[in-house]
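Below is how a single chain appears once it has passed through the pipeline. First comes the sequence as given, then the structure the pipeline wrote out for it. We keep one example in the README because the format questions we get most often are answered faster by looking than by reading.
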Amino acid sequence: MEGLEEKLQGLSLARRSRPEKPTYLLDVALQPAGPLAVSCSDFAVRLHSRDTLEPLGEYRGHRGPLCGVVFSHASPDLLYSASADGTVRGWDVRRPGTAAAAQVFRGDPAHAYSGFDLSCGDTLLCAGTEQVDGEDSYLVFWDARKPGDGPLGAYSESHSDDITQVRFHPRDNDRLASGSMDGLVNVFDLSRGTEEDALLATCNSDSSACSVCWAGAAYSQLLCLSPNETLHLWDLRRLDTDEPLAVFGTADARGLPLLAEGGAVDYLVGAQWLEEAQKLLVVGGENGGDLHLMECDGGGLRLLKTLGGGHASMVRCFLWDAAKEALVTGGEDAQLLLWKTGGGQLPTGKRESRKSETVLRLKSRPHKKHSYQREKKETGKTE
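Resulting structure:
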């Protein structure tokens, strides 16, 4: 069977989608038997064909910046999004173009959500908030099966700054990881009840945690990326041992000679555990738009493939589609690109960036999931 490295080596630009309005593409999700969903900096959620990137419609019900999108695992026609407007919304994929969500989850009116996820069993929704009144940040929980009800409860003691990411374990419905601007990555077992009892581990990233990814055999590891390009890989199987949790870490990936002739990446986009290949894929980029696909393990980062000629600016999100052996990428140039194995259909000349001045003021970092950081922290056409 062809290995992951061989598959990545065969990638070339196959499809390009260009929206009419300049906007940042912030996050992308895949319905395995259906479309792609993309969250955008103009508060819209857009649907695209998985194979052609053809626009299929969009949802414009949110009134604040989005912090991600995720499809239901069991109900293929249900898509969730969360926003700083204080809502988590469930959309009917069969009815794109409507502003009326099929489900709406609300909590405290003072909460602005900055990260969220859905448990693997489709029973729990969890959203993390921005810091409230300069003191507390909350992890808010709802029963996903009861959209009309209020929250089941909230955790308030584990983070002291904006919660940037919430990630449920891909196989354990009660296991949850959260990352925050306070630099902490927490792991919870929700079956244990109280917040104090549920907290299994606290890992310090020594910086703000902007991206968290479950990885490793049986998803027993956690990867954390930080805004200053710090990377930490921890092994949670070592919690009850005297061994250090750290598998690999680097204080600044920009200083690692990963590219040809000793070059380095300018930033890290994110990471994804590839179950079939049992590999952790980390994507980095250069400010001009080129992408670098890397493998991460205890030995560090290793370059597998460079993708050039596609994006004209920084890349914000990516997704590896194992079934199609394809990579989807979206960025600040408002482009959604499809890279496929077996030869490309498009020339690789870069398109002109379509950033607007408004969008440029919204975001300055390629990998933050939302555009409402406080100052103190500082349809389209397809080819």
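The domain at 4-382 is CATH 2.130.10.10 (Methylamine Dehydrogenase; Chain H).

See the next section for the split statistics.
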